Amino acid sequence: MKMLSKKLILVSVLALSTGCASTTITNPGEQKDSLSIADLPSDVLALAKRARPDLKFESADMDIRNGIQYYDVEGTNAQGEEIELDIMQDGQSWKIIEIQRDLEFAEVPENVKAVYDAHVSAKPARIIESDQDNGMIVYEFYVLNAKATKQEKHEIMLEDGQAKYLDEEWKH
Q1: Domain identity same for 34 and 69
Q2: What's the predicted TM-score (pTM) here?
Q3: Is residue 83 situated within a structural domain?
Q4: Which of 40, 126, 131, 156 is 20 to 30 Å from the Cα of 169, by its Cα?
Q5: Residue 15: inside a domain, yes or no?
């Protein structure tokens, strides 16, 4: 057992020192790898650059969920704002399924705030604006429970100027 631990530590140190991508197994059949921008498939990076030429892309993750490959490509704009493009394999090509950024509550549209306040009494710890790249935006509000031990997620969809609280998590 002691020898196995030493081997695992050695392999981990070697992987980190050689710049290998890290892999995390989240659930059976699911996988998440951290990648450098240089390791992205060229067509994925080209799609990201066409969609957001204003961004300097800095990091990426590759996920496999339910047998479908996804890339999360992260970058910053000229104002230093971090933006993430979620790109999904669609047959032999790729498509952007959402563009995300963090927001402060003051930046959330008033009608979305009103719906949030009608359903949730706690102040959000984090807010993500998730542009679905089709005219619809889903606002993700993360709230700590009373003991601050677990986060709850609340989502509000904004489409055609109408805000609606979602009872179930939004699926792409």
Answers
A1: yes
A2: 0.76
A3: yes
A4: 40
A5: no
